[in-house]
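seq:
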Amino acid sequence: MSLYNNDRPRSKKPLVIVLLVIVVAGLIAAGIKYRARFESQPPRVELTPDADAIGTAPLEIRVTDAGTGLKSLTVTLGDTTLASEQFAQPVAEKKLSVALPKGVKEGSATLRIVARDAALFRANEAVVQKNVTIDLTPPTLELIADDRYINFGGVGAIVYQASDDTAKSGVRIGRHFFPGLKGVVKDHAERSFVLFAHPYDTPAEARAVLVATDKAGNTKEMALAYELKNVKYKKSTIALSESFLQNKVVPLADAGARQGSPKEVFVAVNKTLRKQNEDKIVEVTSKATPQILWQGAFTQLSNSKVEANFADYRTYTWQNEPVDSAYHLGYDLSVTKRYPVEAANNGTVAFAGDLGIYGNCVILDHGIGLYTLYGHLSSIDVKVGDAVKPRQVLGRSGETGLAGGDHLHFGVYLNGVAVLPVEWWDAKWINDNITPKLEGRSGDEIHAAQAPKRTKARKRR
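struct:
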């Protein structure tokens, strides 16, 4: 008889334990699956605009439920149902754009939004109910002083008056919006002033529109008529050298991008990093200080000459093959190495520090949406929040960032949009186009004052 034979019946305990483990695991899984079905948090409702008035603009409704999900959603205005949905499968989020029905009359009404989730036994319910005013009348607009000539890539200025019910107004062109500001036109607190651009990247046939919107979302638009003066911007080709790639481009690339080919490294810096830097510039220069900080013409860096132009469209090549392109959004000004860089006008330091391809950089806020940028500095002598005077030294020129030599990159921005810098160096342009409007003169008065000058000029010719 073998020593390993055992005739005793085998124990059933291991099998029982296995079955218990399976049952417990199933219960846990079921609990995880259905736990949310018993949650008690109601859905969340958001309105845009969340105002006490409804107009011709659609009401944007966003409803979310982080638990069991939405089961139903109903929107009513008085006795009228604007939207009603039942979801076969619960959804975590639902967005609706609800417009007023035809024939609705102005007056008071009750807006009611009811959202229910898919919880078992008793659904959680969110109810938003508010008394609103139905307002279908848009604001009114009156153009006080216009701008009849605007440089392509440059700036125009207008004065207008919007009705008291206006919540937001300004000039829209293409994808850009330039907000109007009250309180800057002398002796006319009710009037609004706006600087706007016909941007370098906006088609010449596009036209600016003066827009006013009230809190109910009703909008009034007025097309602006002006002659667009053609400004020819350069196109140039820049051949990349091995030394430039190694000494300037590679240090700016992140660790992952440095492992690529020379072309891949350059594209990572010129496209990806440039986009990040320009997004930061837009963020800084889109905050309009409501007061004018600058005075008179802006100054060009003393003793400098322009080495590269605004909106120059550059194509970069490597080994005679195009690899990428970009707009040059400023002037390159050169004097001597480590030359003192001066503030172009009164302002406040809005940014001071490293800005990727722009190297050490300072951005000055001059008020009402106008900014100047100073890039590639070797050193910075100011800090954020400092008030600066014209010709005050901000730092010294250098070749930090993506600079091929010691120079200053000088840019002008209006509400986040790069604009033609040379206009702001021109005292006559400012005195003819900006100052009279800030002084409260109407368009007719301004054009009448300028007419004799134009007549004399024609006679001389």
